[in-house]
Amino acid sequence: MKYQGVIFDLDGVICSTDHYHYLAWKALADRLGAYFDEEINNRLRGVSRMASLEIVLERYDGTLTQEEKEAAAEEKNDRYRELLKNMSPADLSAEVKETLDALRAKGLLLGIGSSSKNTRFILGQIGLGDYFDKISDGTNITRSKPDPEVFLKAAEYLGLEPKDCLVVEDAVAGIQAAIAAGMDSAAVGDAAKSDLATYRLHSFRDLLTCVE
Ligand code: BG6
Ligand code: MG
After folding, report:
1. Which of 9, 11, 120 best tests ligand 1's pocket when mutated (most atoms within 8 Å of CB)?
2. b/e sequence 24-46, b meaning 16+ C-beta within 10 Å
3. Which residue has its alpha carbon closest to ligand 1 atom 13?
4. What pLDDT digit, counting tens, does each position of 60-74 carry?
């Protein structure tokens, strides 16, 4: 086996939360009178909540104090979490679940490396609350992707060397973070359009051939 563990990004890899992020940011932007669309939303992939807010505010005419920014981020998050309550195990695809099970059956350790502070809530919603061996997320990092911190912490929690881990990502910032961590990476979705990753997956189950 080429790797001893696989570290998965959550949003856009294990499940799709893009639309809920979009709706929650859009509601905040509308209230502020700032322009916001799907294209701007795509730039928020893999980016922390506060850094995302800064991108949303690029189209805002006024200025917000630090306190107002924190309140705006909380307003967005409250709405986002309300929307996340709509998620259920039906939002976990059979292909993703079967591939995870097959990787585990090969003896690989499975971890999460996500910028989201809502990671555990989302995993609970989709029925994977206690599935992963270790979780590194927005609650245990100080620097967001493309900084490698979230993946280095995941490897440390799993008890593995970076070179023995494969990262699975949908964001270019996440692939850059994997490279900075000294880890191989497999790109899905948006990130698969760039040639930065070690592997570009056509479908999630292709992961099984990357680890052999
Ligand atoms: C990442 C998402 O997984 O988490 C980003 O791709 C999001 O879009 C980031 O901004 C932080 O998420 P949260 O749930 O902590 O606001
Ligand atoms: Mg992602």
Report:
1. 11
2. bbbbbbeebebebeeebbeebbb
3. 116
4. 999 999 999 999 999
